[in-house]
């Protein structure tokens, strides 16, 4: 009998160690210039919170049919790998929402296909771009596991001609 009680007490203790009040790690989709576009992982930790975003996509890689009114050179086709990494500084955490400061950036490795004339087979040219930003964000909980985030970072881009607030948004599923 003592062994059963001891086993139950140990089992109860282990479950208490694994218990948590709030889910802390999520996966979802996030879209924003300074946060990156694509699949995203978000983790809220004690003292260190982050969000990482990744996407790879391609479009219009075949040779297009140009009409006589096309102005050359012409871009047709893109290959992109987008990476984003952001630090999240929690300012206010409640049961229903988080208010935080996000800071970080994204980098897009891009190639675009340039056609010089109608008979050209096109050449792939590098057109990488980066964006950095800092600003406030809100994450709203629709349930324990589904959250929506909205961010308003002040951004600067690779040409350094864009310095403005560009909204970002994401949908997340918390699993741990």
Topology at a glance:
Layout: H1 2-18, E1 25-31, E2 38-43, E3 49-59, E4 74-93, E5 97-115, E6 123-126, E7 129-141, E8 146-151, E9 154-157, E10 163-165, E11 168-174
Antiparallel strand pairs: 1-2, 1-11, 2-3, 3-4, 4-5, 5-6, 5-7, 7-8, 7-9, 8-11, 9-10
Short description:
This protein is mainly beta and 176 residues long. 10% of the residues lie in helices and 57% in strands. The chain has an eight-stranded antiparallel beta barrel.
Describe this structure in words.
- An eight-stranded antiparallel barrel has the order 1-2-3-4-5-7-8-11.
- The chain is elongated and about 85 Å long.
- About 5% of the residues have low confidence.
- The two termini are 35 Å apart.
- With 176 residues, it is mostly beta strands.
- It contains one helix and eleven strands.
- It has a domain of 116 residues: Porin (Beta Barrel), CATH 2.40.160.
- Helix content is 10%, strand content 57%.
- A hairpin with a 5-residue loop joins strand 2 and strand 3.
